[in-house]
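Please predict the structure of the following assembly.
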Amino acid sequence: MKYIDEFRDPALARKVIARIHATAERRATVRPIRLMEFCGGHTHAISRFGLRELLAPAVELRSGPGCPVCVTAAADLDRAIALADVSGVILATFGDMVRVPGSRHQTLQAAAARGADVRIVYSPLDALDIARQHPQQEVVFLGVGFETTAPGIAAALLQAEADDVPNFSLLSLHKLTPPAMRAILDAGEVALDGIIGPGHVSAVTGSEAWEFLPHEYAMPCAVSGFEPLDILSAIDALVQAVVAGEPAVINTYARGVRPEGNPVAQQLLAQVFAVGPADWRGFGAIPDSGLALRETFVHRDAVLRFPIDVTPAPEPPGCRCGDVLRGVIAPPECGLFRRVCSPRNPIGPCMVSAEGACAAYFQYEV
Amino acid sequence: MQDQILLAHGSGGVLSHELVRDVFARHFSNPFLDDLGDAALVGELPPGRLALTTDSYVVQPLFFPGGDIGKLAVCGTVNDLAMAGARPLYLTAGFILEEGLPLETLEHVVASMAETAREAGVLIVAGDTKVVEHGAADGLFINTAGVGVVPPGVDLSPAYLRSGDALLINGPVGDHGLAVMLQREGLAFQSTLQSDVAPLHGLIAALLDAVPGQVRCMRDATRGGLATVLNEWVLPPSIPPEGGEDGVPEGYVAGYTPIPPKGGEVSPGGQKAPPISPPLGGTKGGKIGIQIAETAIPVREAVRAACEFLGLDPLYAANEGKVVIAVAAEAAEAALSTLRAHPLGREAALIGRVTAEHTGRVVLRTPYGARRILPMLTGAQLPRIC
């Protein structure tokens, strides 16, 4: 496959791995260089291609909060489940969300089984079509995702305005990634040497969005794609920056990411959403990390259209998804991992989502 | 005759009679069927153990590149018999027809079944037809049951797997699943990909003749693909292989047994829960694992590319003409050359080994030299592909 095989070339990969080990050896301390991959997509690629084993002991990779499903607060999920239970409401969602446990083991899947109308869509435009086909019902789209997903949802909302589809609204749980990265570094719970920056998020925000890492935290950041050689190149660049003591933002995903990002997507976001605080699972409230609908779109805000009281929800006892999301522990350090918690019986969201770190370790790591 | 199926075609009256006479009996004609009695009397069977199987076919679309539901309904059941080492002899065919199905569609499917049965050397000796209201079925469903005989001296079972055994496959994986998937509405892919649907008993008979007593077991890698077959071989034999909602034994994923929380609560002391010991392997002789090499598994370029687009994994994609064979290490070369000499095995490959390590798990060696688990599928990858 052209444009994919080049980024999976085993011979080239072995060369880059050898160079990473050689560079790391020049470092004065013997401690492994610990890098955080922000993005859950990277975690899955690392596990799936077996990169962790090949980089040890020179480099240790720690998963970050980059799984939108995982960082959705349990109380927000409770609200979505309560919305699905409202008579006349069709709740449209991406598939990952239906199995994620809210508080008290509630899921959208269980709500659907007892009669709620929950529909899995692949695009917010499909949800808009459902609204057109069912004018007597209210379609609520469950908006979960980072900067990558939100522009598409903004576009669907504008389409609903243009086509005058009144029965389409949004529960916006969208989140912004740089504030979460700041929260991790400010908390200082995990010692990190560098950050593997999220590729798809950066395609929208631009690699410049990560300049605060070298400037304010002296932390190198390499924006990476998702093929093995993309990730290895990013790690190679980070290890060189760490050893040289020269933190910078390095864009190793130039075929997808520009320094300034995607201005069209950014403009869509600014037109539809306003930045505000958001609750993150594992973090609590993070200022300026959420996307709420602007005042001009309040008539499409599901929170206002369907007022529902949701009480803050406790995490399931023993579940350490919060610690996994903040990078404080790796999934096998959780006492429930593999023993109680599995993809068949997930206790926390990190075991459910296709981007969840626990699911990646469970499925692939020997 | 009418040009579409009516409820009256299933009523047992004149239309039913015409349908049986003009469609089913005409295409399937053979001495055992032509009597149209309540049961087919096939007489004496050759010596050996009797093998019985049944399978239902609900593939959507009914016609796909390389085959159709009729060909699939014959091959699938013939292959199930062949996997047990049986020589397939007779099939039965049950049809559930949706009111409004064009008669021409039914004729095409029945003709295809008849042709496939002729090629495979099996007779369709009994049948049944039911018609359900429009909307109560999706066009046409078929059930086939099969009877075969396992010749004396042939005895295959995953219980005979042992460390060192070689694992072979007769060609590239994923063709059927992707050919069907790409044909589906809404996936406007241009592709020359064809389903691999084919009766495998000829290939199997040649193999069993070439390396007598050396083949441990075989499975056709249908739903769930190659990865699922290998996982079923390393899982404990006491668990029914289709116990879970999606064909995964309840509670078993990648060879681990999660303890379900009791009474809907997880005890805070869960962190102190004792580690679960790996499950027993699927063998009489003890525990086994499986190791395969990713680079050794044949996958067509078109399948790889389509999987990449759709976010699927070819190792989990369905096949209808692929068999995974475990054979004693010393017979691996002979088995491989026998497979390659047959038209349905030209691209056969040695893909891995049974191991005494990492018991209960299938481990894949990646092209980078790293190892990773090849897990059991936890959700449905492609619904209604067979």
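The longest helix of chain B spans residues 103-120. Residues 158-243+279-373 of chain B form a domain with the Phosphoribosyl-aminoimidazole Synthetase; Chain A, domain 2 fold (CATH 3.90.650.10).
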